Input
Amino acid sequence: MAVTGDSLGSPGKDLSINLSTEKALEETMLSPRFYTTDFAAIDKISIDGVREEWDKLMCEFERDSNIDHFQRPKDMQENYSKISPEVYDEFVDFLISSITSEFSGCVLYAEIKKRAKNDDMKKLFGYMARDESRHAGFINQWLKDFNIGVDLSFLTKAKKYTFFKPKFIFYATYLSEKIGYARYISIYRQVEKYPEFRFHPIFLWFEKWCNDEFRHGEAFALLMRSDPSLLKGVNLLWIKFFLLAVFATMFVRDHKRPKLHKALNLSPTEYDIQVFEITTEISKQVFPLLLDIKNPNFLKSLKKLSYLNEQIEQCGTKGMFSIRRMILFVKLGVCFARLFFMKSLVNKLPEDFRVKPSW
Output
């Protein structure tokens, strides 16, 4: 059943399931990672300062409004692998990246639930692991149409894990969940308005799907608002770093998929700016500083990052230690540093910090 070759394949080819698993195992600057953390520190978290909002959110999780959402109806049991060869590789890359990201959350949340003695943490991360497991499994259903489903159990054992302190988990995962909401809702609104560009059925699920992402982000917002020390002092620099890292990674990754965005009738740059605007507006609930995404130098520098990343990839693995590659990495680092030292916007945190998914 296996085939050889560098490509992920094309419609109609019979591919080994391991090929997509190998893709999910890749470790690059842009690939989603698996994380582990200080579980004892997680156990010490107190949410007493936000208890009222916390209890409301736990009720939302318990209601489980998407319990029946991630299922293909009987009239969608046919094979949907026959899509345009021009968009195939980029679409499959998008799905594999998405499943890796969703399953990364599932693994981390499940491990926290398993190790936690703190009832609040045990309950929260149990709910979120449940949701992320559904998301990953659902994407895998569609990947198996292409005969390239990801072996999630193997991924759990073989993927490298990165250690992050709890506060870094909170910053990074809050942004990941909120930007995930912004990405999914923006794509859904596009295919809702222009159904002729909905080239695959999975986009029909994005509206309710992104509300899970939004709710997860709300949980991390509560965790951060429960500990004011996470939102001041030197931690402001960490917040800025993670904001920039998440936005830059998305921009570079999306500009590697021009055919996918063209198929959706989207400009990668315009789409990314829209997602940045939504994410920035949402993150006013918790972050005392924001990136000045309207500064012309912000977009200019992101485009330069994308160009430099493309040049690095063109060097290939054979040029891993070439002088040109090293120079490009230095230029990329300088470009990121310039973005980091751009003036931030000051944000006064609202007293009522819960946000509704209204986009």
